[in-house]
Specification:
The chain is built from 2 helices and 9 strands. By secondary structure, it is of the alpha/beta class. The protein folds into 2 domains: 30 residues; 90 residues, Cupredoxins -  blue copper proteins (Immunoglobulin-like), CATH 2.60.40.420. A 4-stranded mixed beta sheet has the order 2-1-4-7. α1 packs across α2. The longest helix is centred in the N-terminal third of the chain and has 12 residues. 17% of the residues are buried.
Length: 126
């Protein structure tokens, strides 16, 4: 069973399978903070995403009007968002700070306005 979960997790990381919440939680050993959003003409919604350091994060972004991209350089993420298809992006928020993201697929005159930020709040040490 554990080998099957590992295989599903590795396939999902490679982009060949969607990663379910149960498999992700079992593979990562912690719950996943899921955030749903959209990409459309000139904007991401939400354009500010706040998580805690150390959290496993799953962004599910759907392009509503045309193909867009999602690039979060600090976490080495660059995904194509095809119109109407939700795209799951998973990572562990390992670094505290504020990190910009933007549309990485030219999508029209408002392309350069498609920006946002990921805020990773630091772990509180006791």
């Amino acid at each position: 069973m554990i080998q099957a979960i590992r295989l599903l997790f590795l396939c999902a990381l490679a982009g060949s399978l969607p990663l379910s919440g149960t498999a992700a939680e079992a593979a990562a050993g912690s719950p996943v903070h899921e955030i749903r959003g959209t990409a459309e003409r000139d904007k991401f919604t939400p354009n500010v995403i706040t998580v805690h350091q150390g959290e496993r994060v799953r962004l599910i972004i759907t392009a509503l009007d045309r193909e867009h991209g999602f690039k979060l350089s600090a976490y080495h993420i660059n995904k194509t968002l095809k119109k109407g298809d939700p795209v799951a992006i998973e990572f562990t928020a390992s670094k505290a700070g504020t990190f910009p993201f933007h549309c990485s697929h030219f999508c029209g005159l408002g392309h350069f306005k498609m920006r946002g930020k990921l805020i990773v709040e630091p772990k509180i040490r006791h």
